[in-house]
Amino acid sequence: MKRKTIVEIITILFLVFFIHNVINNYVGLQSLKNLLGFYTRNFIIVAWTIIVIETVNVVLLIVPGTRTLGLLMTSLLMLALAITVWITPYFPHDFGGILNDRTGPQIIFFAIFGVILALVGALLNPKIIKKSNRQEKAPVIYT
């Protein structure tokens, strides 16, 4: 299987996950605000920030030129997910979609797997490989 195909499969998986989360968080915005009240006083700003960050990540994953940045951002978001569940195991969590029916350890495992998958996708991205394989031309010296 080509590297580009592997990166596109990984990207599609994350696109489905994040598009679903953006829609779910937007539709359940009031529920998200209520839940964030357990964590912060600025729950309105945090709720919209989550939606905007996930939307930006979706755009970065869709555009081929920014896909590597999107995959790196995905790894950071998945790491934040794992840390959030690890630090606050007894607080209520509402991550949307498939994660709502999972236990804390299952979410942490899923998030760590997501970090690894996103980093593999970023490393296998053909755009990085093409840039790193270029040889610099020797400077021309005129005498």
- Shape field: elongated
How much is the radius of gyration in Å?
19 Å
Structurally, the number of domains stands at 1
Give the number of helices: 6
Helix and strand composition category? mainly alpha
State which percent range the strand residues make up. Answer: under 5%
Low-pLDDT runs: none
Account of the protein in words:
By secondary structure, the chain is mainly α. It has one domain (3-133). It is 72% helix and 0% strand. It contains six helices and no strands. It has helices spanning 3-27, 29-36, 43-62, 67-87, 104-124, 126-133. α1 runs antiparallel to α3 (43-62). It is elongated, with a radius of gyration of 19 Å. It starts with a helix and ends in a 10-residue tail after the last helix. The mean pLDDT is 85.
Topology summary:
Blueprint (H helix, E strand, L loop, with lengths): L2 H25 L1 H8 L6 H20 L4 H21 L16 H21 L1 H8 L10
Helix pairs in contact: 1-2, 1-3, 1-5, 2-3, 3-4, 4-5
Quick summary:
With about 140 residues, this protein is mostly helical. It is built from six helices and no strands.
Features:
143 residues; mainly alpha; 6 helices
